[in-house]
Amino acid sequence: MKPVTTILLIEDDKDMVEDVPPLMSQPQYGIEVDTILVTPEMDIGTLRNKIKAKPYDCLVLDIRMPPCVGMTNDETEGGRITGVLLCRQIRKILPTTPILVFTAVSDPDVQRAILHEGANRILDKPAQPDQLAEKIRQIVRSG
Amino acid sequence: MSDQRLSDEELFEKYKDGVIPPLIASPDSRFGLVNGKLLEIYQRGFSLVHSVPLGVLLPNLTFQPGKPERWNEGNYRPNESTIPDWTSLCSLIRKFETPSGERPGDKECERCDKRKALTAEGKGKAIAYLCPHGLIDMAVPVRLDSQTIAVLFSGQRRPKRAAKWPKDLLDIDDVQTPENETSPDLLIESRKRIQGLTKLGICVSEIETAMKCDDERQPGVEVGPNEIEGVLTRMDTAALHLSTLASNTYEFEKARLVSVIRYGLAQALTIPKEGPSNWEDALRAMKPQLLRFAMLYGLDYAALCRIVNDEEIEIVCQIGLDQILSGSNRISFNVKGTPERGRVQRFPGLWEIDLNFYSELSVVARILAQAKERAQVFPKMLCAIREDEFGFVLAMGAFRPGKPSLSSSDAKSVVEIAAVAGLIAETLYLLKNLHQAEADMGHLLEDVAHDLRGPIQTIVNKAARFKIAGLSPDEYRDQARKLAAACMRINLLAHRVWTAQRLWRGKLVYKDSTVSVKETVKKVVDTFADVGEREGVDVVVDWDELEQIRSVHVDSDMLFECVLNILHNAIKYSTPSSAGRRSQVMIRGRVEGGRWTISIGNRGIVLKKADMPHIFERYYRTEEAIRYKPEGTGIGLSIVKDFVTHYKGEANVTCDPIPGTREYKTIFEVNIPTETRR
């Protein structure tokens, strides 16, 4: 039996959180998706605990999200780079887990910043489920 | 090629990199030679005036007249001889030391020499003047081969009957133009004038020495009255020739000044990205021109300033007597009294102010009064102002005691300088706005791109899910509704951007017609049905109240846009009810006092009082709104504002805490006069 890839999707878009798990669990993809819906009420500590609660083959992270409690508007540039700060936090607790950034932010400076913080790959939205699954496979394979 | 033949553009190209030919001058000598063209003299020579005794004369050039009818530039020959030293009196003044070792006379002589040299240079005339220590001195500009190469100084004799002589400038008026060069009448007239100099006791031997006429007399030998006439005749002719060489200098110089300032402007305009502070930098970059301006007009102090606020002026760039404003570049002024002493002489755009006068030109006079208070030196200052939306830009200068007023033509030049300085400042102010607009537009495009990609991704995902077998009819309907909501998000964004860009470009034309408010609101609510569902928000409308408004006379599309934007905000920033119920947005309406009102209220995030005055500004988003929903463009409510402004109405917002909860009730209200027909 083919081993199942498990990923954690960290997103603020309800539709993404709703759609990605059933799409990725299709037999042709075989990816099991847990999700965290990021909200302004969410505490950064809670978020960290959820991330490290279970080992994942890969984390899929958005960039532009509401700043969590514990983050300021200034440091996240009004939510524009919340994912960059989260990535830094994640790298402190999960130094080696691959991180795929799946984002609608196309600003090259921001993309460079998140790669600098330890993200492994970036996939631009919109992307077909095939592309997302392929990117996840690549990033998991290359470790 | 001579610079005179270069166009402004060519000049700019030539000098834009700041490549300035070398200065050939001895810092120790009384005289120096600037081996460059006029522009270089000003750019370089003036920048040295603080440290180098200017007194620009050729240390290695001699005038060899030969026969007058064959005079040309070739009469100037290199000369190995030494430069005549100061007169003993002049040396005494210059060498006088205070107990602290300072040599104030030295500084004063330098300053005086610089000023007079540049006055002569600027006027293109030889000038004779009485120095502050009572010496007669002369400054003669020398122009050679399209270059102003020097200003010759001579004289420096103490007149025997100083009290009878004019106290300041005595221009040799009629000897400088090519047109009058051969006019016998003018020559006679000018000779008379020159002869008048004998009464001033000028040491003609020094003049003779300085100019190296081909007289057999030895330099420095005193001559008797009978010989003076012959010497003066030669001097007259020499001065005529020198002045001829200097002809057009002044006009050329003015033209060049404009060129230099244009260059400064061009330089400022080529600074691409430091927008907000650029205009200050540009004013600072004008320091050489300001220095030139001050020297040209014999000012001891000049500055470019800007009004910071009602109580402060910032000296952005200043030259000469820096001690005036040492310690701070900001002057506070708070002069409340309005003593009526003093007087104001006004040229167009220019004020010459007796600093005891504070009243009519209150701001300027206050500034200058402050400057004077610190300086304790100058009884009068000169100030040219350009006022625009940016504020003030001032070119100002101070006169020494006893200095006569400027002529109206000089005043005009000062005004021109201030005007150009103002133009630069204004241009940079506009640039600042432009850079800000570009930055805002960049953010807007980024936001729009982001906010488009989100729902597009949703559409992609939903479409993929439809392909998966096993969706129940209910699930299918649910997914279809969410798909529709994603499409509507894109549609709303596109609509808002489209309206905003028409509005900002002045392309939006309001087309009034009779519109049913109720129908419009219904259309908006229907539009948001799926979006509201997605966000967990119910929209409740008091249709009876809206019915009261009946129809209004406005642009139907803009009314739709207005309601749509407010409702979208209300849905977007509604928070889930603490009791776990769906949130509610309430739409109401009324007619009273000749106005119709639509109000849209929700329970949601706080809107602070400090944000309220700005909430309808373009791009403005509150901290809380950003935190709650990072996506957004901040343009929706600016469209609302434009709508109500167009119909002379009002848009208001209130936000109050809901007792017993951590929620806030926010109500946006738009009210418009019932009668909007024109």
Structure annotation, total helices of chain A: 5
Percent helix among the residues of chain A? 25-40%
Helix vs. strand class of chain B: alpha+beta
Report the total helices of chain B: 19
In terms of quaternary structure, what is this?
Answer: heterodimer
CATH class of chain A: Alpha Beta
Q: What is the ordering of alpha helices and beta strands of chain A?
A: EHEHEHEHEH
Globular, elongated, flat, extended or rod-shaped: what is the shape of chain A? Answer: globular
Q: Provide the spatial order of strands within the biggest beta sheet of chain A.
A: 2-1-3-4-5
* Overall number of structural domains of chain B: 3
End-to-end Cα distance of chain B, whole Å, is 66 Å
Tell me what the CATH architecture of chain A is. 3-Layer(aba) Sandwich
Question: How would you describe this structure to a colleague?
Answer:
The complex is a heterodimer of chains A (143) and B (678). Chain A has one domain: Rossmann fold (3-Layer(aba) Sandwich), CATH 3.40.50. Chain A has 143 residues and is α/β, with parallel strands linked by helices. Chain A contains 5 helices and 5 strands; from the N terminus they run βαβαβαβαβα. The model of chain A has no long low-confidence stretch (mean pLDDT 88). Chain A is globular. In chain A, strand 1 (5-11), helix 1 and strand 2 form a beta-alpha-beta unit. Chain A has helices at residues 14-24, 44-52, 82-93, 108-116, 129-142, and strands at residues 5-11, 31-37, 58-61, 99-103, 121-124. A 5-stranded parallel beta sheet of chain A has the order 2-1-3-4-5, with helices on both faces. In chain A, helix 3 (82-93) packs parallel to helix 4. In chain B, helix 5 packs across helix 7, helix 13 packs across helix 19 and helix 17 (556-572) runs antiparallel to helix 19. Chain B is 43% helix and 20% strand. Chain B is elongated, with a radius of gyration of 38 Å. By secondary structure, chain B is α+β, with helices and mostly antiparallel strands. In chain B, a hairpin with a 2-residue loop joins strand 14 and strand 15 (391-399). The relative contact order of chain B is 0.06. In chain B, strands 11-10-9-15-14-13-12 form a 7-stranded antiparallel beta sheet, sandwiched between helices. Chain B has a 5-stranded mixed beta sheet with strand order 17-19-20-22-21. A 4-stranded antiparallel beta sheet of chain B has the order 7-6-5-8, with helices on both faces. The longest helix of chain B has 59 residues, at 408-466. Chain B folds into 3 domains: 3-249, no CATH class; 271-431, GAF domain (Beta-Lactamase); 469-673, Heat Shock Protein 90, CATH 3.30.565. The chains are: A alpha/beta (143), B alpha+beta (678).
